[in-house]
Amino acid sequence: MENIFLQISIILLIVLGVSFIVRLLKQPLIIGYIISGIIVGPLMLNLIPNTETLQTFSEFGVAFLLFIVGIHLSPKVIKEVGKISLITGIGQVVFTSVIGYFIGIWLGFSPVTSAYIAVALTFSSTIIIMKLLSDKDSLDRLFGKISIGFLLVQDLIAIIILIVVSSFSNGVNASEIIVSTFVKGGIIVVFLLPISYLVLPRLSSFFAKSQELLYLFAISWGLGLSALFLYAGFSIEVGALVAGIMLSISPYSYEVSSKLRPLRDFFIISFFILLGAQMIVGNLAALWIPAVVFSVFILVGNPLIVMILMGIFGYSKNTGFMAGLTVAQISEFSLILIALGVRVGHLTNEILSLVTLVGLITIAGSTYMIMYSEKIYSLLSKYLSVFERKKTKREKDENKDYEYILLGENRIGFSIMKSFVKLRKNYVVIDFNPERVRRLSSNRINCIYGDVSNADFIDNLRVKNSKLIVSTIPEAEINLMLIEKIRAKNRNAVIITTARQISDVYSLYKTGADYVILPHFLGGEYTAKLIEKADGNKKYYSIEKQKQLKDLKERLKEGQEHPHIEK
Fold first, then answer.
1. What span, in angstroms and rounded, lies between the C-alpha atoms of 190 and 275?
2. How far apart are CA 214 and CA 220, in angstroms?
3. How many CA atoms within 13 Å lie on the side-chain side of 206?
4. Average pLDDT, whole number, for the chain?
5. How far apart are the C-alpha atoms of 167 and 173, rounded to whole Å?
6. What residues contact 494, with CB distance under 8 A and at least 6 apart?
7. Strand 447-449 vs strand 404-407: parallel, antiparallel, or unpaired?
């Protein structure tokens, strides 16, 4: 026990030191965690001869991460993106494996080896992507929801393939195991559905009376279902995700998410340390050419496949591009599959070293691509139009003159749109979420399906005679580009933007914004004005309460919820 405590303490100190340097260099912390794993692993210091403790910590981290992700995936979200996620997930696996197989043959590998490598290349790391999307606050964005969906599809396919390969060494019937696994999973889901809708809301309401009890309930619920699905033959990820989805309909889900985040952040570090420590690199001189070829295919080819599939189904090039970046790396399932292939005698250790090297390159590369996705997109935007359908209706709408323009009909935009209606202005709402646009159209609201982060789209949008343009998009880079484009055509229009950070406000004002919305500060400002107007008159508060309840009722009809603010 004492040795384990000392071992973990030393490892954490090394992680702290490496992470400190990584942060000074303004690099993603995930890179620091993986580098720390390489340092403490057998390739260098070999400080973790016994990995059981870290492995357990890693599993806890994975469970908490996917549990929190599941909380963001309510049944409504699954209905919204389920179809495209299923199609994209299966399509990407099929096309990547086929193309990867022929690349392997071209590089001189045998058909069996090429097949193993091709299948390994199809799996993307759910854990890494969910962590990056969470850090970028993108889990609730359309591409984030779709990415979560098709990564889950990939995980299910990976489980089936691993069962088949494992059966070669165990001498068991793979089809029987697969059928048994999914029958167990089906029974569990059928059993849990009535609990989710009938029992869970009452239980969570009871536990919420005590903060400590709610905390304990959340941990037990998430880990309990993870263990249940693991027993049924699925992965921890699947069980934790289902647990989160079931809890997403609870009014206490956001509170649960915020409470579990510190646990997630601590335990998930172990996953990345182990990932780095388990990297096995053999003869680099003989492997670097195929490693680079396969890495380029994953970093470029996989995103292209996703962009093509999503473009076919009518999603914008921005959504397709952002979702495509989430498949630009291989996962832990890839390494497990190749290791199983070595164990059953189908592959050599050289192939395991090759795929490990590909993993190092693609994980590092995709991390940077996702962290700086907006900048990369702005550079490539004009070349990506080939992946986007050209809609005559949209082009016609873009050529109209509107006095008021709202960019992004979300929680903030909903109230702004209502003010446009009251003022009886000639207005238009622009949004890149197909479902949202369809809903607005059905309510006879002027709307355009468009990607406002695309400079070409803004160039084609007629803003010369517009009087007011409001952007509820919080990304500073996009808003800075919008201001510059609009000011080049219209010096007199009032431009209102949104920001997350105070530092962004100064940049936006300097560029030409007339007002910047800081959502987190507006509540206090409004309440202060309310207190001044009411001057202790309780009746005034009653009137305001009824107004608020009426507004919230309308928002709930639109499927809106208050965003979760993690500290």
1. 35
2. 10
3. 6
4. 78
5. 6
6. 467, 468, 469, 514, 515
7. unpaired
Residue 98 pLDDT:
92
Residues 295-324 have a mean pLDDT of 87
Residue 112 is encoded by which pair of tokens? Answer: 């069996």
Fold annotation for 66-266+281-386: Na+/H+ antiporter like fold (1.20.1530)
Question: What pLDDT score does 450 carry?
Answer: 67
* Spatial distance between the Cα atoms of 459 and 488, rounded to a whole number of angstroms: 10
The fold adopted by the segment(s) 392-517 is: Rossmann fold (3.40.50)
User: In terms of pLDDT, which residue wins out, 497 or 148?
Assistant: 497
Is residue 360 within 8 Å of 352, Cβ to Cβ? no
Q: Which of 453, 467, 470 is nearest to 415 (CA)?
A: 470
pLDDT category at 264 given cuts 50, 70, 90 is: confident
* Average pLDDT for 188-205: 73
Give the whole-angstrom CA distance, residue 34 versus residue 275: 6
Local confidence band at 176 (pLDDT 50, 70, 90 cut-offs): low
**How far is the CA of 504 from the CAs of 509, 513, 516, in angstroms?**
9, 11, 9
- Residue 81 Rama label (left phi>0; alpha psi -120 to 50; beta): alpha
| 373-377, 421-425, 549-553: least confident range | 549-553
DSSP label of 107: T
The encoded tokens of residue 90 equal: 């299966």
- Separation CA 128–CA 491 (nearest Å): 44
Choose among 561, 565, 566: nearest CA to 249.
561
The Cβ of residue 480 has, within 10 Å, a number of other Cβ atoms equal to 18
pTM (2 d.p.): 0.60
* Length of the chain as a residue count: 567
pLDDT at 298: 92
pLDDT value at residue 355? 83
Other C-beta atoms closer than 10 Å to the C-beta of 340 total 19
Q: How many other C-beta atoms are found inside a 10 Å radius of the C-beta of residue 294?
A: 26
Q: Which tokens is 327 given?
A: 């498949």
Question: For the chain, which residues make up each domain, given as ranges?
Answer: 66-266+281-386, 392-517
